[in-house]
Amino acid sequence: MTERPLAVVMIDSHAEIERGGAIQCVRLAVALARRGHQVTCIFGRGGTARNEGPYWEDLAEAGVRVERRALSSLAAMRRFGAELAGLRPDIVHTHKNRALYFLAGAVRGRREFGWVANRGTEYSLFRDPLAWAIHRFRVDRIIPVADAVKERLIRDRIPAERLPTIYGSFDADRFDPATSGAGMRAAWRIPAGAPLVGMAASFNSRKKGHHDFLKAARGVLRNHEGAWFVLAGDGSPEFAKAFADELGIADRVRFPGFVSDMPAALATMDVVVCASLQGEGLTGTVREALAMARPVVSTDVAGNRELVRDGVTGLLTPARDPPALASAISQLLASPAEAGRLAAAGRALVLETCTDEVRASKVEQVYQELLAERAPA
Q1: Can you say whether the dihedral through the CA atoms of 269, 28, 16, 122 is positive or negative?
Q2: What does residue 109 show for φ and ψ, rounded to 5 degrees?
Q3: Residue spans of beta strands (DSSP E) within 190-303
């Protein structure tokens, strides 16, 4: 860091740190704090929300101040607006729309800080006129998580010069290819040495393509009779279990639920799949699987092609095409040498573009340029 330390407030829409957006907020906050900045993170309130677990520990160890607010409360917005004068942030960085609305409600007039917002999906802002208006007229910089998201924002009439693409990040020490997956495989009751194809995706989101993954699994079993499959994620998997039973493959599919140790989970998979249908920004599991040097097959949605470069760092298939998905998975299972080559190239790419340090450096540059732009002449 070459400039003075900045006072940064991050507002995240989540109450728990379990899924992609909240984890990405934490990773950035920790990395910025380690670079010498004074960082405060504000999370929502939930009925069972507690500041417990490894991500909360990371925040504490990095010296990040943590607060909780009722992000949907008008009174909480007014209180926060009054408190901003005392906080005197240089930058307030919002993550997802609830945080965006909270800050907009707190700050209705002139403000002294720069406003930066993350944008993690390629859905059009025109779906929500209020969100579009805030992004268009109030936010100083919007950080798209992929060029595909940036292109969508430009079509939504957001000026391109306000849209610096910065990929989400991962902890390079934690996502280490030397991690053993043996314990996870044993816990999942997968035979040692059996080919294992996995997907990690929330069951609360049907856009993740669970049905297509299971249809592809049935196709893979025609050529690889010894293969096993795992579908991990939060939420109820009952609809997917019922579909696996309907397809006649239920005995070859494991549903372990939410997995907190993703490096170990990915380490035990021979092929990692993203079967998403739409609405992605850049799927976090894709980035993490590449970091773990795992062979990846992904549907060609949103920004995934920016990391999964077909035939170079992984294989791409059209969305909603289970036969194509099955063919790509089978190709990698049948050719370990090709799978290894793609996986090694994928890890090299994300080490160059997606580590916490790389991301924090780019975000810091956005902050500094914005503040220089806002400084009095």
Answers
A1: negative
A2: -120, -145
A3: 196-200, 228-232, 253-257, 271-274, 296-299
